[in-house]
Each structure stands twice: as structure tokens, then as C-alpha cells.
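Possible regression after last week's pipeline update?

I re-ran a chain I had predicted before the update to compare outputs. Posting the input and the new output here so someone can diff against the archived version. Not blocking, just want to make sure nothing changed silently.
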Amino acid sequence: MEQLISRAEVLLEALPYIRRYAGKTMVVKYGGHAMVDESLRESFAQDIVLLKYVGINPVIVHGGGPQINQLLKQLGIESQFVRGMRVTDRQTMDVVEMVLCKITNEIVTLINRHGGRAVGLSGKDGELIVARKLTVTTEESGRQTKVDVGLVGEVRGVNPTVIETLDRSDFIPVIAPIGSGDGGESYNINADLVAGEIAEALRAEKLILLTDVDGIRGADGQVIPTLDIERANELIRSGVIDGGMIPKVECCIDALRGGTQKTHIVDGRVRHAVLLEIFTDAGVGTEVVRAEARTSVARKRAAR
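New output (post-update):
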């Protein structure tokens, strides 16, 4: 009997969050280990379907770097990177589009198998993501040099109409991070950046980035449960936040400034990480928030 009561208490803990977020939109960037481990893939799909059934509108943006690397290697195409960005010629772009569309279909199938109604999209569909060529600057011996990385893009604009239409019809959008240029050319865009821009355009309640780390760590090496924009910038300047975590944090900051209510960097290696972050007091990562929200939010998550 006690075990049954404890299960009921779990549901009751989630109740205020379900009530608060009903009807809201949440953008989830799906990537990392959660995309390749079978049990994590299943739990992610279950999380997304449950969100939809309790009245939340999830929007999925996915990556696919490891899968792209694998196919390029099989085809004998060497991968080159500049400042962490894949140099993308037309041949490589064809591979990128093929792999990302395949991943989209796999995610859609998985969500549908668990009772959801998912629809796959490329950023080119309905001019969802309007892109332009990204200019990359490197520095060597004090001299700055512009490097052509090919068909790598940045988001120039987002037309959210197609997403809003799907949401109203109770579909779950699953989006590949490919943008369309003015001439109809395809651009390969970082999935975190696409997720952030879509969250801004939708004025989403939350932006959730699934990662392969357990959150943002402070100078003492401990995970920081809640981080405001000012403190996040301080940690970047001091080098505490470095490497691949910098663009993720900056993505969260931009989304907050663009109208997203809260952002989260979540450990996607934990089963049901999305539900745990949204519906429990402790969470499983770091939330990045505006300064004025920090005090009340920190109290909620102090038990972590």
C-alpha cells in the first residue's frame, strides 16, 4: 500500500507543473547519447507523448553529427572542421540532408509508435528557417582571417506558421536543422542555434537542450542548479564555462532575451530526463533564467 501511495505522491508533485504549463509550447533540442541508446530513445519518445497528452505543445529539433560522420566515412569523404563547424561542400551537404531526413523519419516513427501524432519537417518546409551563409573568422598570430566553410548557415529568420498550425491540430513537429537561402540553396545549421531561434519565434515557455553532461559546472566542479544571465556571462568570461558549453549557454541567453520564459541544459543520459526537468522540484540539469526570476526559482530547486 505504501508503494502505491508513493506513486500517487509522484503524480501530485507533477500536478502544479501540469496546471502551469498546459497550453504552453516547449522546444526540445534532441541530440547526443539520447539519440543512439535504445532505452533512452524509448524514454524520450514516451516523455514527448506524455507532454502532448497533458496539454503541452512539444516541438522537437534534432541533431545528427555522429550519424553524418559515420556515413561520410563510409563514403570516403573526409570531414574537416573550422572552430567546431563542419566544412560543407555540395557533396557533403547532400549527405547531411539525407542523414538528417532519415533521422527525422525515425523520430517521427518512434513517437507515433508510442501513441503520439508526429510530423517531420525540414527547415526548408514552408520557409520555416530562412538562412544565410555563415562567415567564420579565425585568429592566428594576432591576425584575423575569414574562412569559407561552404554551405554552413546561420538563421536569418523563422516563419513559425507551419509549427503553430501543427500544434493547433495536435501534431508534434519534428524538425531537421536545415535552412533555405534566398536562392533556394540548403544550409547546414547548428541544431542548438535552430532550437533557440524557433523558441524565440514561438515565444516558448521553455527551451530544453539535451546534452551528454549533467549540467553547467561552477568553479568548484559542482553542477549549478540555476544560473542567471549575468552570472552565466561572468563564468564564460572567466573561462569556467568553456568549449562546447559556450554556444549552448549563449543559445539559452539569446532565447531568454528573445522572449522564451526559461531555458534548460539537461542531462539526456538520464531516462525520462525531460519529464524529470519539467515536472519535479529537483530537475536533472541546469536552468538558465533571467535575473529577476533567479531567487524564486533557486528556492524551488535548492533541494538538488
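Follow-up from reviewer: compared with the archived run. The two ends are 28 Å apart (CA to CA). Marking as no regression found.
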